[in-house]
Amino acid sequence: MSRLNSTRELEHLREQLREQRRNITTTVMVCGGTGCQASRSQTVIDAVRDELSRQGLDTKVRLCVTGCHGFCEQGPVIIIEPGNIFYCHATPEDAFEIVYQTVMRGEVIERLLYTDPVSGEKIKTESEIPFYRAQDRQILSQNLMVDPCSIEDYIVGGGYSALTRALNGMAPDKIIKEIKASGLRGRGGGGFPTGHKWSECKEAPGDEKYVICNADEGDPGAYMDRCVLEGNPHLILEGMMIGAWAVGSRKGYIYVRNEYPLAVEHSRIAVKQARELGLLGDNILGSSFSFDVDIARGGGAFVCGESTALMASVEGKVGEPRAKDVHTVIDGLYHKPTVLNNVETWANIPGLILKGSSWFTSKGTRGSKGTKILALTGHIKNTGLVEVAMGMPIHQVVFDIGGGAVNGNPIKAVQIGGPSGGCLPLDKFDLPIDFDVLSEAGSMVGSGGMVVMDGRTCMVDVAKYFLTFLQDESCGKCVPCRLGIDRMLEIITEITEGRGKPEQLDLLEELADTVSQTALCGLGKTAPNPVLTTLRYFRAEYEAHINEKKCPAGVCKALITYWIDPDKCTGCGVCVQGCVYEAITGSKKQVHVIDTQLCQKCGICRSECKFDAVQTVWKERHQDVAICQS
Amino acid sequence: MPPQTLEQIMGGRRSQPNQLIEVLQDIQKTYGYISKEAMQAVSQGLGVPLIEAYGVASFYKAFRLKPSGKNVLTMCMGTACHVRGARLLLDQATGQLGVKPGEMTTDGLFTIEHVNCMGACALGPIVKENGSYHNHMSPAKLRKLIETLRHHKTEDNQNVQTQ
Amino acid sequence: MLQYVKVNIDGAIIRAIRGTSVLHTALEYGICIPHLCHVPYLSDIGACRLCIAEHMVNGHSNVTTSCTLNVEEGMVIMTNTDKIRKLRRNLAELLVAQAPNSRAIQDIAVRCGVKEVRYPFRNGDCVLCGRCVRACNELWRAKAKGFVGRGKERHVDYPFGARPDFCKQCGACIQLCPMTIPPCDGPMKPGEERLCGQCESQLMTNEQAPGGCVWCKLGEGFGCGRYVGSQAR
Questions:
Q1: Residue A595: strand, helix, or coil
Q2: Which of A24-33, A104-113, A358-367, B86-95 bottoms out in mean pLDDT, i.e. has the lowest?
Q3: Pick the CATH number of B71-151 from 3.40.50.11540, 3.40.30.10, 3.30.110.70, 3.40.50.720
Q4: What share of chain A is helix, strand, coil (3-state, %, to 5)?
Q5: Does A427 touch chain C (CB under 8 A)?
Q6: Rounded to an integer, what distance in angstroms lies between the CA atom of residue B23 and that of residue B46?
Q7: pLDDT for A141-175, tens place per residue?
Q8: Is residue B159 packed enough to be buried (19+ CB in 10 Å), middle (13-18) or exposed (0-12)?
């Protein structure tokens, strides 16, 4: 394909490509995202491709290797159109049947269909599956139609028509006005109004400006940015092009974290393809707009998700944030005005430009418009990526879409917003997904990571986990973050080991408050949130650890022991063999016993036992039969 | 080390300090770690003070300053994996191999690393072994995996799907 | 050509030089804002956070470090509110718990109002103020030492741990370090873990003697040990 020199040529190419595909009757979309890759989807892809070739169907049937569909637990996932047929847990051995029965004869293969965990019924189409039905997949649904490594797919589906509209009839001021009117707020965590950010950058003095896509996605438990960038990189590029046109930038960067090799590769391919067609470079589509993008890789640092640290990293330096008394829209990358937005924010732009701000504002609440992608994980039936209109109450996400609790363990809390966010208890599940409402409750929407926790999670341990994470990721420059988090962790560790004192809770709160007010950057400022929310909503668990030396959830190792229930033990010997510390004794068919002096509580015996005989009990109740959790 | 490959890595990036991280990434991928000689060559080639190059290499988790074992086991410590017991996996591995995270076993066979989220949260706990992702791991499965790797004679790994 | 702006610091209207920091302006004027990582002839990084002040913007206050905040016309700064004093005291408490043997850090802690230390003392030998690193990079430009590692592992070191031959041995790093003054092992003695407030800081570049302080009334306000101590004499 040769370089496009005008928007008319782009439309012509689009027509041409659609014409070429006129003969395609069926499209088989197999997920090639990282999640399904971990479930060996590559072998399925190869098997289906071979089978189609063997049957001579290459010209009539299109095999599209797509990005993530969001329902990773069901992978490898295959969707077949027409019919919207949804197959899950596909294996290479199924390839023949899929091609022969479904593709060629339109017949559905029952055993590959999704089984609704509540009703037990088989569901035929993707749109009927409860997990998908309650969602509003504006961005994620676009993943289904494109092979991320094919710019043709993107163009056939209507891609780059937003860019065309922008270049043809929307001056920069008009675009910024539209973005402002939409109320779009940053999807990376800050929730800053995007229109204002762009406007400030445009007005900043200087004619060298940058736009950056933040694909650092360091929040553990969040993988929506990976999904969108891996699955549809051109969507991001188009968004960045429109942004660059609006603020007057000629150079952009996509900063991808080191741990996402597939996202790096797909972004690079997309940039190369865009350059070949002249969608990046000088005088794009014959206009006065020149813009190019490079990919910069992260080095493995959560702190580089912070804007000033990210820019330092692009400049080849250590990712140490700097004080933001002057904002990065004025003084950013290489001290030039810079717009930095999250992947999901950029992904919203093309649709917004095409459909207009009133369409965008029709979804969501007064302060939070549009849709948000959430990564729903943890102790829940349906884990995966979920896209909903802002304003949906938490309980709807957790129970209707997520399917509710697993194995009858009642849900206790949900952690929203990653390490900067907070834990909300069950009685707060009526709160909506909304930037301001969740902030007031002490949590935050953040990047959209939602981890559901049931009774098997100790909330003090959760606070300890996040502090450990933040201590590891802190750049270490400023005193409150480096020493403050360290001391908070010291106190919480003492509490989890049964050495806590009541006055430490007040000290913990005071220290948390000090850190949040004096830290240099967002990492430090929000680091106390997990501690503060768990103290606010789950104080009873802290008090149990301190006053009774008990861990109600049975997690904190120092406060529990492992014990074999003599009523359930069959003497099979599996745990004896599995124990690397040789802490279990017992002859065949005799009740086995754990020597608590040798036991390291690694959990192998508990996971191996098929009779659920290994239990965790409170240390002092070891002699009793009292069991705190199974 | 073969000077040519280092030359190739540095090619087109000389005297560009902002390429430091990209260059170090390529060296890490090629050699498995950043040696003293490589660091000095990078410092000179890019025009970055040695202490700055050293500082950058020690700041980012992606770079190792010591060689790593034949099998690198990377454990995900993200939130979703954590609530499913990822901590137990780390304890299992360090106990079984007798090394701390980041260290190499004395027989040169294993290095244990931990990472804060690999982005496959629905399938946790995740252990990445030399490029392949293993999902829904448990301490028992991990023990078997380590034993299997210990008995592997060849470098050939059928399961490699991503770098 | 110098340009001037008028700023309001703690009620005093001060004529400040545009392009300088609030901290520099306050110190020049005689308003004492405690600080550790600030050195007049080196760049400011805002690492110790001791120089925090409240910057009033549109009716609400931002807590920010005065060393990284440049003066602007009409700026209103408050350096000594209850909130700031409490935050500063907590920060100083963290510092002294980390490195109790340093006379300079003890002095700062006392001046910031730390009475009791609620954390177990650790015998740290570096508070990562970065004075040595900046001196090496900016004064004699040897660039022999720098920050290495991240977070809890962050420390000052030479490349690969060995002093390179391009270290000019200028001694600037040693002169500026708050830890190299002969240590006072008072707080680390078992049973005596507290601050007595008898040691004087030798951190400031001006000559140190009780009479050298400018006797800002605010020192009295936050119980500056030097002021209170000399009153008692």
A1: coil
A2: B86-95
A3: 3.40.30.10
A4: 45, 15, 40
A5: no
A6: 9
A7: 999 889 999 999 999 999 999 999 999 989 999 99
A8: exposed
Quote the pLDDT of residue A602.
Answer: 78
CATH fold of A16-133 reads Glutaredoxin (3.40.30)
For residue A553, the distance in angstroms to the closest alpha carbon of chain C comes to: 28
For C155, nearest residue in chain B (alpha carbons): B55
The candidate with the shortest Cα–Cα distance to B76, out of B86, B84, B85, is B86
Q: Indicate the fold that domain A151-360 takes in CATH.
A: Rossmann fold (3.40.50)
List of E strands, C79-148: 146-148
* pLDDT for residue A613: 87
Enter the ipTM. Answer: 0.86
DSSP B10-74: HTT-TT-GGGHHHHHHHHHHHHSS--HHHHHHHHHHHT--HHHHHHHHHHSTT--SS---SEEEE
Least confident of A64-78, A334-348, A446-460: A64-78
Number of domains in chain C: 3
Angle of helix B86-97 relative to helix B139-151, nearest 10 degrees, comes to 40
> Nearest to residue A129, comparing CAs of A163, A87, A97?
A87
pTM (2 d.p.)? 0.90
Chains that touch A (3 or more CB pairs under 8 A): B, C
Amino acid present at A475? C
B58 contacts chain C (CB < 8 A): yes
Output the CA torsion A554→A556→A557→A560 (10° steps).
-40
The full 3-state SS of A343-402, as one line of letters, equals HHHHHHHHHHHHHCHHHHHCCECCCCECEEEEEEEECCCCCEEEEEECCCEHHHHHHHHC
